[in-house]
């Protein structure tokens, strides 16, 4: 009897070992650019030659990422979302791109992206069809994984349209197994829990074991209402989600929409600041050929990126609300702490609050230097019993800062940074 149970245990251990992702990737939140939110499923290249999903679009975005500072800042993945496929598989049941929009094929496109120092990502769907109605992967998981590896894909987003949500608990790990089997390092982004939330409880422990990152909730749209809805949803679930969040496994609140049409200056700053506090993937979806300077300044802010990419990988949380101002907090390396004060209400008057440093959890040192995150400017030097006065504009703006221990003898710098030169 003991031998029987030992045999069963070994068998189950082998299954877990074989199927677990364990690819060593995404030790910090992935950063990059994706087609979907800005360019959706535009396939009419005759009427929309500059915005249709095509190799031309991807090459031009790769050029901008490499030449305009995004790659240098850490945005190193360029990901083609839905609608790149031909409507049918080839005679050998292999995926193939639309021959008109991708005349040179995916491998040639990946080679071009790689030549720019970037990594190449692609989209598929676990179901019978993609969300846009193109061939899905459910009956061809291993073949598709092999195809992606042959194309030198570095990142796979696997969506969940036209699939049974009850089968995802087996299907998504199986695709991860086939990706590992190719021996190519491919970041694995799952939409698994996003389709289960609201119907069945996702098993986040299992999801974190088999995926590098995963979409939890609704797609983001290009407006503040959608952005704030996502922020509030994550705040309401943060205690459970943070347990499975960290190096190699990330909750994904969806793309950065900074630089499109729907966010104000303050709201754009808010998304970047809160995504950084949450250690969320920073995946832009914007036309980098037309982006305004102030948009790119937000996306390229080195202090915010440093907060996001902090090696501890802690998921920052909303831990306090004072007069409708939400206070988000994240512990960083080297005994530093980042904060975001977020005021989502549409009132006409800025909120002014006074918060004791002790209520912010700043009570280990006698003295703290506090710096504003966007500029790095010194806010002030404070004793742990002092009040921090914060002013935040309404309708989705933020005040962002970080605190670090100090001492009386050392005069604080007028400006500091969180990033390493």
Descriptive tags:
421 residues, eight-stranded parallel sheet, 31% helix, 21% strand, alpha/beta
Task: Tell me what the structure shows.
This protein is an alpha/beta fold. Helices cover 31% and strands 21% of the residues. The protein contains 13 helices and 16 strands. The strands form 3 sheets. It has an 8-stranded parallel β-sheet with strand order 7-6-5-4-3-2-1-8. A 6-stranded antiparallel β-sheet has the order 9-10-11-16-13-14. Helix 6 links the parallel strand 3 (119-125) and strand 4. Helix 3 runs parallel beside helix 5 (105-115) and helix 11 packs parallel to helix 12 (293-299). Residues 1-18 have low confidence and may be disordered.
Let me know the number of strands.
Answer: 16
| Radius of gyration, in angstroms, nearest whole number | 23 Å
Which sheet architecture does the biggest sheet show?
Answer: 8 strands, parallel
Question: Tally the helices: what do you get?
Answer: 13
Q: Enumerate the spans where pLDDT stays under 50 for 5 or more consecutive residues.
A: 1-18
Q: Give the overall silhouette.
A: globular
Oligomerization = single chain
Walk across the major sheet and give the strand order.
7-6-5-4-3-2-1-8
Relative strand content? 15-25%
Question: What is the mean pLDDT?
Answer: 95
Q: Termini, distance in Å?
A: 62 Å
- Element order, helices and strands? HEHHHEHEHEHEHHEHEHEHHEEEEEEEE
Briefly note the structural class of the backbone. Answer: alpha/beta
Percent helix range = 25-40%
